[in-house]
Write a structure and sequence with these properties.
Chain C: This is Fe-S oxidoreductase. Chain C: It comes from Flavobacterium aquidurense. Chain C: InterPro entries: Cys_rich_dom (IPR004017). Chain C: GO terms for molecular function: oxidoreductase activity. The complex is a heterotrimer of chains A (466), B (195) and C (246). Chain A contains 23 helices and ten strands. With 466 residues, chain A is of the alpha/beta class. Chain A folds into three domains: 247 residues, Rossmann fold, CATH 3.40.50; 87 residues, Fumarate Reductase Iron-sulfur Protein, Chain B, domain 2; 64 residues, no CATH class. In chain A, strands 1-10-7-4-2-3 form a six-stranded parallel β-sheet, sandwiched between helices. The longest helix of chain A is centred in the N-terminal third of the chain and has 23 residues. In chain B, a hairpin with a 7-residue loop joins strand 9 and strand 10. Chain B has one domain: NagB/RpiA/CoA transferase-like (Rossmann fold), CATH 3.40.50. With 195 residues, chain B is of the alpha/beta class. In chain B, the strands form three sheets. A five-stranded parallel β-sheet of chain B has the order 1-11-6-3-2. Chain B is built from six helices and eleven strands. The N and C termini of chain B lie far apart (55 Å). Chain B is globular and about 65 Å long. Chain C has 246 residues and is of the alpha/beta class. Chain C folds into two domains: 112 residues, no CATH class; 118 residues. In chain C, the strands form three sheets. In chain C, strands 2-1-3-4 form a four-stranded parallel β-sheet, sandwiched between helices. In chain C, helix 12 links the parallel strand 9 and strand 10. The longest helix of chain C is centred in the C-terminal third of the chain and has 17 residues. The radius of gyration of chain C is 17 Å and the shape is globular. Classes of the chains: A alpha/beta (466), B alpha/beta (195), C alpha/beta (246). Strand 9 of chain A pairs antiparallel with strand 8 of chain B, so a sheet runs across the interface.
Chain lengths: 466, 195, 246
């Protein structure tokens, strides 16, 4: 959180890599999810056309979101839903709390909502004396451990079953050492069933909001959103405004893409369409901005708002798989998190766009075709211009620029010191040669290519033969 | 209210100047495959059980053979009154917590993902397909359609308060990616495919 | 056909044999090849670090050296991609735009411009192909495993007629090696781990050589291989394609 000093991605990643076995497991497990995604995508002949279509729908949404929001609100109200607007995280949290206060309720059951993570709702409500229980199994596990989720779809992917067993033993009284996932899941099911049956307020996220009908769609595999919402008197659904889509039929495109991209499933177990509250009950929708309208104004970065939170870019990212979600110190980790986070706080998140090799795999798996790796490149340029990079790096870069722009200096520098290798930033002002820690330097050859060329090129030889 | 005005104002200022066209959806969903066979295969792959039946009598027979009738069985289908109760739809939804099996009908099924479309009018209570330990859904074979595009064509402007696609039993893989059926909702799903 | 040979700065300094192989190969294939002596670097290390604004000097120098050639050919997908995407010159933007279209990576130049499908050669070893990201996902030199699209590979196609070459099929066909320019030092832990994991995949397939179209990736992998005292060697694809005696 912002009050604590943020540990840079590279440092957190270095720590994560101290346990090689754990890193290998994390990498292989997420790669397995990527492979399931590939198999699933390859079964759909129209896959690439679907991505293109989804991308176009989202482009249309971004260009017309003002009118869609007005249309959505009007239709939702007609359906008997109360609509709230929150400019930022603080207002979002206050609105949620005010609904709880109005009903004089002190307990809430919550299904997965990355937005509430972004707004730190749990901490806020805890301060107000309200108990929140996260009902998605992964979220429940990390909540008991007082950790943030490390992945938007697989919140506890950084943990092994031994860790979960320990946590459940401590909090739910499960058998010590019983690491059977079936047993552990069953224990959580029993505990959470009691929660569902006793909570008067349920909060869910929103996967899609449909302007044309004023309904919202929530997708889960566990059924936890539905168990919460249908048993509570009040259902609060929180959404970033970019969740809008124009028409119901567009769900056909997104529901085909979402789960296949996320986990390789053909669809989530439940895709629930909430249009009207049950008789005598309430549905509240909180529409949140929290920096999104600013991002909408950044031409190079507005496409990040097309994201449908499938997590495919995380699963495919070779850096994410080997650094873990927590190293991104942001509610949304991985490549997509790294292009969203600087918009929220440039100084705190300046390291994230650099936590990438720009390999481009993220862009290729994205179901709505966000140019993620190009945006990472562009954020780097912005962060440098806005002064969020270390001075030593800037000095090194300026030296490099001068040398490389001038062939005469370059040739002298190259001959004497193999200039480029020596000046890879990070080597500068650093006692340790970071290349050399775990890698050998390339051997220095007798002569450079240009030296060889001077003697051996066709022109040189022709001259010699004259 | 002021936040709404501020947000909308900022959005209007910042959204792209040109409204891009919505794409043509009619080119999608033309894949050709054996709809019923695909439906069954996909359902099995995600942990559900397809059972082909000729009539309600066969459904009753199947349930009698596979479920404990001493436990609480509920349904919204009058033809099944012999094995399940029908008088629960106006009760407090919390009272459904001890339901062993819930048998409902679906409007249609989708072959590509085995999802079944159900709405309040078929559910009796919204929570019924989630709170029961086991779930059985009846769908006519003729109502299995190929993809989600046909599904939304069929839904069209259908009026409902709540509707959901159900594909297989409730599940989670949040512990080390090990698949466990029966997370919070039904532990098992039977789909009766009716002639 | 007059070719300007564009040799990445680190290849010039550390891997002259790759430059030599590229030069000889292109000549064998009937091209008139010149190496402009004033070339330095395309500016990518700075641009990828966020300092694209400092690359104007590099751009101007690149244009001064390479204007006037029919094609600019380079044995590195990464450098070519940078030039294709980012070469600009306020004073002569038209020329810069034209040059962005004239720059080619070596293997795509052979298959797409020279229209040569395969090259004779001799390389009797088991070889793993390291697919470099910028060449693949940037220049589309080969199909990407993320897409539902038919397979192709320009570099692999060229290796088909190399005698004795046994090309293995890797488990992860196009995962990044972790070099990533300055990433290799700023995110050293992850960079090295990615490289080690790539090497493991090649080891599991018992390769003698790891080849590829980008010496930067190979330099990173070679650095790790040498530290591990591995018998596996790295070799640029130009050296294999130039394996038939002159």
């Amino acid at each position: 959180m912002s009050s604590k000093k943020t540990i840079q991605h590279s440092e957190a990643a270095a720590r994560f890599n101290k346990d090689t076995e754990r890193v290998n497991w994390h990498d292989e497990t997420l790669w397995f999810v990527r492979e399931k995604r590939d198999r699933s995508a390859n079964q759909i002949a129209d896959w690439e056309l679907l991505r293109e279509t989804a991308s176009k729908i989202k482009n249309n949404v971004l260009s017309n979101i003002h009118d869609y929001l007005i249309e959505f609100e009007a239709n939702a109200k007609k359906n008997g839903i109360t609509v709230h607007w929150a400019a930022d995280a603080k207002e979002h949290n206050e609105i949620v709390h005010s609904i709880m206060a109005k009903h004089d309720v002190k307990q809430m059951v919550k299904s997965k909502s990355m937005l509430t993570e972004e707004c730190h709702l749990n901490d806020y409500l805890a301060e107000k004396g309200i108990e929140v229980i996260d009902s998605d199994l992964g979220e429940y596990i990390v909540q008991l451990r007082k950790e943030p989720p490390s992945h938007i779809v697989l919140p506890a992917i950084h943990l092994k079953k031994e860790d979960v067993s320990e946590t459940f033993h401590e909090h739910l009284g499960t058998e010590k050492g019983n690491i059977d996932p079936q047993y552990l899941t069953e224990s959580a099911r029993l505990s959470l069933r009691n929660t569902f049956l006793t909570r008067k307020v349920a909060l869910t996220g929103v996967n899609f909001a449909i302007a044309e009908t004023g309904e919202i769609v929530v997708c889960t595999n566990e059924g936890n959103a539905d168990m919460g919402a249908h048993l509570a008197d009040v259902h609060i659904a929180c959404m970033g405004f970019e969740k809008l889509i124009p028409q119901r039929k567009h769900l056909g495109v997104f529901l085909r893409l979402l789960a296949r991209s996320a986990t390789g499933q053909p669809i989530t177990t439940f895709s629930s369409h909430f249009k009207k509250p049950r008789e005598g009950k309430e549905i509240h929708i909180v529409i949140v901005d929290n920096g999104r309208s600013t991002q909408l104004g950044r031409e190079d970065f507005r496409n990040s708002l097309k994201c449908i939170r499938c997590g495919a870019c995380m699963n495919t990212c070779p850096v994410y798989r080997r650094s873990g979600g927590h190293s991104y110190h942001n509610a949304v980790a991985g490549p997509i998190g790294s292009i969203l986070a600087p918009n929220l706080d440039m100084s705190k998140n300046a390291d994230l766009p650099f936590a990438s090799t720009l390999c481009g795999s993220c862009t290729n798996v994205c179901p709505v075709k966000i140019d993620i790796h190009d945006q990472l490149y562009k954020w780097r340029q912005v962060l440098v211009k806005e002064g969020h990079t270390p001075t030593s790096k800037t000095v090194a870069m300026k030296t490099m620029a001068t040398v490389l722009a001038n062939p005469t200096i370059f040739n002298i520098a190259g001959k004497s010191g193999r200039f480029v290798m020596k000046n890879l930033p990070g080597l500068v002002n650093n006692k340790m040669n970071k290349w050399y820690d775990q890698r050998e330097m390339p051997a220095v050859p007798q002569e450079s290519f240009r030296e060889w060329y001077k003697k051996n090129s066709r022109e040189a030889k022709a001259k010699d033969n004259e | 209210m002021s936040s709404k005005a501020d947000i909308l104002k900022k959005i209007k200022q910042n959204q792209p100047a040109l409204i891009t066209d919505l794409p043509d959806l009619s080119v999608l969903g033309s894949e050709e495959f054996d709809v019923l066979e695909t439906y069954k295969t996909v359902l099995k792959n995600i942990g559900g059980d397809p059972v082909e039946v000729g009539n309600y009598a066969e459904i009753i027979q199947y349930i009698k053979a596979n479920y404990n009738l001493d436990k609480r069985l509920i349904t919204t289908i009058p033809e099944l009154s012999e094995i399940a109760t029908l008088d629960w739809t106006n009760d407090d939804p919390h009272s459904l917590q001890d339901v062993e099996l819930n048998v409902i009908k679906a409007h249609f099924g989708v072959a590509e993902n085995s999802a079944l479309w159900v709405t309040d009018d078929l559910l009796g209570q919204r929570v019924s397909p989630f709170i029961a330990q086991y779930l059985a859904i009846i769908v006519y074979k003729k109502d299995i359609i190929p993809t989600m595009h046909q599904a939304y064509e069929k839904i069209g402007n259908q009026e409902y308060g709540f509707g959901t696609f159900i594909a297989g039993p409730s599940k989670t893989a949040d512990i080390e990616q090990s698949l466990v059926l029966g997370a919070h909702g039904a532990r098992g799903l039977i789909v009766f495919l009716l002639d | 056909m007059k070719i300007g040979l564009f040799i990445p700065c680190y290849v010039d300094q550390f891997y002259p044999k790759v430059g030599i192989a590229t030069y000889e190969l292109l000549q064998k294939l009937g091209c008139e090849v010149h190496f402009p002596m004033g070339q330095t670097c395309c500016g990518q290390p700075m641009a990828n670090s966020g300092y694209q604004y400092l690359t104007k000097g590099c751009d101007a120098n690149f244009i001064a050296n390479f204007a006037g050639f029919d094609y600019i050919v380079c044995p590195s997908g990464s450098c070519v991609l940078h030039v294709k995407e980012h070469l600009h010159d306020e004073k002569q933007e038209e020329l810069a735009a034209e040059m962005r279209k004239k720059v080619f990576e070596l293997t795509e130049f052979i298959t797409d411009v020279l229209k040569i499908d395969s090259i004779e050669g001799n390389f009797p070893y088991r070889v793993g192909m390291h697919v470099s990201c910028h060449g693949q996902r940037g220049l589309k030199l080969s199909q990407m495993t993320e897409l539902n699209a038919p397979f192709f590979s320009k570099p692999e196609q060229l290796l088909h007629n190399i005698k004795g070459l046994d090309l293995v099929s890797l488990t992860r066909k196009d995962e990044c090696c972790g070099f990533g320019g300055t990433f290799c030092v700023t995110e050293e832990a992850v960079s090295v781990k990615m490289g080690q994991d790539r090497i493991k995949d090649h080891e599991n397939h018992h390769v003698d050589y790891i080849t590829g179209g980008d010496m930067s990736c190979l330099m990173h992998l070679e650095g790790i291989l040498k530290r591990q005292k591995s018998p596996i060697k790295t070799i640029h694809i130009a050296e294999i394609l130039n394996s038939l005696g002159n």
